[in-house]
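Summary for the funding panel

The consortium committed to producing paired sequence-structure records for every protein in the target list. Below we show the first two records in order, beginning with the earlier of the two.
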Amino acid sequence: MTTQSSTLEISGNSSLLKKALVGNAVFSGVSGVFLAVAASWTAAFLGLDSATPITALGLILILYAPFLAWLSAQPRPRSWLVWMVIELDILWVLGSAILIFTGILPGLTVAGKWGIAAIADIVAVIALLQYIGLRRSQ
């Protein structure tokens, strides 16, 4: 009986995974700083009454980015950690669709919907690249 290891053997095929994780770390960090610094502007752009959720999201992304950078620097990242990152990205995209299409945020502006959709598209591409990189690394 063979068992699949929960670590990845890093080879030449893993460069896509590492680059995608680094890209995710950079995008998360830059987005987090922007959201934390420009929370009031972002809330107004989206049509939200309060900047507090935007500030909180920014801080979460700022804390998440170093984890992604650390994961990308591992010579043998645990596959379950990479899967967790991919799944979190998928949840981000699904959450964005819920925000855009359900009316759960009644004041959401049209420009805000487009902004959320654009960011979700970027996150979806990053998730796809991480998935392809993971599959190539196994």
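The next record, for a separate protein in the list, is shown here:
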Amino acid sequence: MSNLLRKKTGFSLVEVIVALIVLGLAASGMMAPFIMGRENVNLASRRIDALNLAIERIEDLKGKVGIPGITPGRIAPDELAAGAHGPNPVGGDLAAFGGQRKYTIQDNIAGTNLKQVTLTVTWNEPQ
């Protein structure tokens, strides 16, 4: 009968606590890549928003210029004047991050009658 009392099955409280601590450390180490991945997805989303805002303005400028002999232009002369234009606040998701859009126009690129448009979209990244 004394052998039956000495034979114990299961885990002691200390063993369970140590196992939970080890499991917690392992789980917290595995969470870091998920957190970084989420931050990278958010940054990629803001970059796509910025790209879409830039494309929107470029397409707007292209549409306003018109095609000589086919469609008349409907742009105000100052919108395509050489120099800096903006910054203008943007809407959408980037507005929450202080997003701005500005563009610069250069005339007569390489001795031609062409213009070069450089468009920049900026925002403040959260810390």
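Regarding this second record: Residues 13-65 form the longest helix (53 residues). The chain has two helices and three strands.
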